[in-house]
Amino acid sequence: MTAQLACYDEDVPVAGTFRVELEAESGTVEVAIVRDEAGELHAISDICSHGAVSLSDGEVEDCTIECWLHGSRFDLRTGKPTGPPAVRPVPVYPLTVDGQRVLVDVDAPL
């Protein structure tokens, strides 16, 4: 597959998230489209690698997202945990903006 429409630019608030389900070759993938405090958009797995809950319900600070359940933080650019208790990264996906359309390729994690 290639990049597919995830949402529109206006759907994602600053320092906020927008949850989508996209189709990958392996099946449905839950993705959090996140706008960091600087206004940059990111696509990251919506499932915390520690607690298996939705990251899109968490808080965005700088270029990280915090899991609401146990407080793990993940870097939006790399998916690597920046704070415990998570020790495994979450996938991040290539994201492009075409006009107002936000496109994500879930078959090519970074």
UniProtKB/TrEMBL annotation:
Residues 4-104 form the Rieske domain. GO terms for molecular function: 2 iron, 2 sulfur cluster binding; metal ion binding; monooxygenase activity; oxidoreductase activity, acting on paired donors, with incorporation or reduction of molecular oxygen. Pfam families: Rieske. SUPFAM superfamilies: ISP domain (SSF50022). Transmembrane segments: none annotated. CDD domains: Rieske_RO_ferredoxin (cd03528). Keywords: 2Fe-2S, Iron, Iron-sulfur, Metal-binding. It comes from the Bacteria. PANTHER family: 3-PHENYLPROPIONATE_CINNAMIC ACID DIOXYGENASE FERREDOXIN SUBUNIT, FERREDOXIN-RELATED. This is (2Fe-2S)-binding protein. It comes from Cellulomonas chitinilytica.
